[in-house]
Design a protein that fits this description.
Oligomer: single chain
Number of helices: 9
Order of helices and strands: HHHHHHHEEHEEEEHEE
Distance between the termini: 5 Å
Shape: elongated
Strand order of the largest sheet: 1-6-8-7-3-4-2-5
Helix content: 25-40%
Length: about 300
């Protein structure tokens, strides 16, 4: 069998287009949809791929480039600090000073006076702001640990679900309400599976708009009613990574799977959300002992 050209080089070329776009539009709002489209990657997965390969989030990358540009302007011009702060996207001199001090270790005024200081902030990707040159390469971050990823072929799953909108840390209340509703009608028990579908990445989507579906597998007899809907999770090939520990740290495992394993896998993601299969219950399990299988949907291999 032959695969699509989804090698590490392919993913590097995808993200290089994004890096060029960001540098050329630093004074404009950076929209996830635009960046994902530029990379030819699904918005469902783009941010994790970016973070895993470059070692910083999209927001962190943009913020750092704007601060590096501000540092350069401090050194090469007499523009007042407050104007440079506004140009870097900060609404107040104070917020700019805090961010600048965090990045460079000294205040903007001290930076302007001090000789021999670098206008660059150290970063794993080695991508820095340049007023004339666009990025032509970047350093891919390598994971320090091996990942035990398996590829499984899964049959379509019919699930009942309840939609949660808001911070992912609050989905417990949605689950409680959902399970009480299903339980009183006798749909909880036996071999049902408990699944979560995260539609948005908290790294780029406001917390108030995050979407999550609490799901339980059901048979064909189940019908949607009220707040409870029915959907089908597509079957096919999935890359599966087992996450051990609290749900709050799932984001790191997503980033490792999509930003570290995927680019070297010679596989391509389908443009649909990942899903989480919960193998034990947070009601009876300590957070550090929770076990979750993260499923990333893969395009089928082509012959």
């Amino acid at each position: 069998m032959r695969t699509k050209p989804t090698t590490l080089r392919f993913y590097k070329e995808c993200l290089l287009r994004v890096l060029v776009h960001i540098q050329q539009h630093l004074d404009e709002p950076i929209e996830l949809q635009t960046l994902a489209r530029t990379a030819c990657l699904s918005p469902h997965h783009f941010h994790h791929v970016f973070t895993g390969m470059l070692g910083e989030s999209v927001a962190g990358h943009v913020r750092r480039l704007r601060l590096e540009r501000a540092a350069m302007r401090l050194k090469l011009s007499t523009t007042p600090v407050v104007q440079i702060a506004f140009g870097a996207g900060y609404e107040t001199h104070e917020s700019f000073t805090r961010a600048f001090r965090s990045a460079f270790g000294i205040s903007p005024i001290q930076f302007r006076k001090q000789k021999g200081v670098s206008v660059r902030v150290e970063t794993p990707s080695a991508v820095h702001y340049s007023p004339k040159e666009r990025p032509t390469k970047f350093r891919v971050v390598k994971s320090e640990k091996s990942m035990n990823v398996t590829i499984k072929q899964i049959k379509p799953l019919r699930v009942a679900f309840m939609r949660h909108v808001g911070h992912y840390n609050k989905v417990g209340k949605t689950w409680d309400h959902f399970l009480v509703s299903l339980g009183k009608d006798g749909f909880i028990g036996g071999s049902v599976q408990f699944i979560g579908i995260t539609h948005d990445d908290p790294g780029v989507t406001p917390q108030t708009k995050l979407r999550y579906d609490a799901c339980v597998t059901v048979d064909e007899k189940f019908r949607a009613s009220g707040e409870i809907g029915v959907q089908k999770i597509a079957g096919g090939d999935y890359a599966v990574l087992t996450h051990f520990g609290p749900y709050e740290s799932l984001g790191r495992s997503y980033t490792e799977l999509l930003g570290q394993w995927l680019p070297r896998s010679r596989r391509c993601l389908r443009p649909v959300p990942c899903f989480e299969l919960y193998l034990n219950s947070p009601e009876s399990t300590d957070p550090e002992d929770l076990v979750t299988d993260i499923h990333a949907p893969l395009e089928p291999l082509t012959i």
